[in-house]
Write a structure and sequence with these properties.
It contains 11 helices and 21 strands. The chain is α+β, with helices and mostly antiparallel strands.
């Protein structure tokens, strides 16, 4: 059997690895348009190993996160990849957020997240002495790791089972008219395959459309801009300090994330990127931008959340405004404590009505299986997503 996987991010590599485990007789080929693996979302990931607090019980996210975190933990320990349980504190700033925090507590309990604790007053300050808030929900098993290193290990596993990762191979055509899946590439010629898995991240909707899948959900790129605490100020945060999510808004907001190799990131905000892979403000691709602006889903989202967009843009343009947002959670932070850090771009899937696709979404069209949406906790869940996708790829 000849199986192709489009995309050498953490999910594509995990899927290829799993396919090699299940079908050692198969030839598994990963096609990646860049000259290196894990170039985009995986390589710019904050490194958080999520425990499963936020996700609606019974959702694919909840199921695959809880299985995925256990698989990932065992894998990192086996391969000598650092994984540290630094813990996460979700902070309620005032009484208006307590009901939402209690809902998170309920979800975490239903999802089987271990060790969760409700904290108030001095208990909260024992975990994060410099954090604000009247109450908090503490997850001691939320951790951090190096997802670029995990992806590199997955790529090694693909090779050890006889598979290959072909770099500089951009998929430009997919035909399912015959019994085989014909994949046309720039850089690697034409491949005839029996099965194809699409794990293309920021390009997932475009590649799925080549295979005859529906246009929606469409991917809209949002750049997440970060700062980093100066080294002498890293002691302000022990682990991860997060806000309580507001269901009225589509993004989480500024938070504090300790990194496994040192440093504390502050952010991100979320602003529209003017290119699918637009990591800087000056990165503009008119074709990408026009595609976004033509999207029904984006226009509906913009109408519903323009005030939030203006708030996020202000934080993007003003370091002082960004610091003020961060100071709501750690009051001692000043603008002088923040230095620029690399940005990421989130592949946000939108339905035509403007609603953000919250759950993982995986479609199957004959011999082609497409991962259409795998946002956070996608990296945490990668090994579990791989199990799920590989089973569908191999179905008759």
């Amino acid at each position: 059997m000849r199986i192709g996987v489009v995309g050498a991010g953490i999910i594509g590599l995990a899927v290829a690895r799993r396919l090699g485990e299940l079908r050692p007789d198969a030839t598994v080929t990963v096609l990646e348009k860049e000259r290196a693996i894990a170039t985009h979302q995986t390589g710019r990931n904050s490194g958080v190993v999520h425990a499963g607090i936020y996700y609606a019980p019974g959702s694919l996210k909840a199921q695959l996160c809880r299985r995925g975190v256990e698989l990932l933990r065992a894998y990192c320990e086996e391969r000598g990849i650092p994984i540290v349980d630094c813990g996460k504190l979700v902070v309620a700033l005032d009484a208006s957020e307590l009901d939402r925090l209690r809902e998170l507590e309920r979800r975490a309990a239903t999802n089987g997240v271990p060790g969760m604790r409700w904290l108030e007053g001095d208990e909260l300050r024992e975990i994060e002495p410099h954090a604000a808030g009247i109450a908090g929900l503490h997850s001691p098993t939320t951790g951090i790791t190096d997802y670029r290193a995990v992806a590199a290990a997955f790529a090694e596993d693909v090779g050890s089972t006889g598979g290959s990762v072909v770099l500089g191979a951009e998929v430009v055509g997919i035909s399912t008219a015959s019994k085989t899946v014909r994949v046309e590439t720039v850089g690697a010629g034409v491949l005839d395959l029996d099965r194809l898995a699409i794990c293309a991240g920021l390009q997932s909707d475009r590649v799925a459309l080549l295979a005859g899948d529906e246009r929606d959900p469409a991917i809209v790129p949002f750049r997440g801009e970060y700062y980093r605490l100066r080294p002498e100020r890293e002691g302000l945060v022990r682990g991860l300090v997060y806000p309580v999510p507001d269901p009225a808004y589509p993004f989480l907001g500024v938070h504090f994330t300790r990194r496994v190799h040192g440093g504390v990131d502050v952010g991100p905000n979320a602003v529209l990127a003017f290119a699918r892979e637009g990591y800087r403000r000056r990165d503009v691709r008119l074709g990408d931008l026009f595609e976004t602006l033509r999207s029904r889903g984006f226009r509906a989202l913009a109408r519903a959340h323009w005030r939030m967009a203006a708030h996020e843009l202000r934080g993007s343009l003003s370091k002082r405004a960004f610091a003020a947002e961060a100071r709501r959670y750690v009051p001692e932070v000043t603008a002088d404590d923040l230095v620029p850090a690399p940005a990421g771009v989130r592949a946000q899937a939108l339905d035509p009505d403007g609603s953000l696709v919250d759950d993982f979404r995986i479609t199957r069209l004959g011999a082609v299986t497409a991962v259409r949406n795998a946002p956070s906790p996608g990296a945490t869940s990668s090994l579990a997503i791989a199990e799920y996708v590989a089973d569908r790829v191999l179905q008759e």
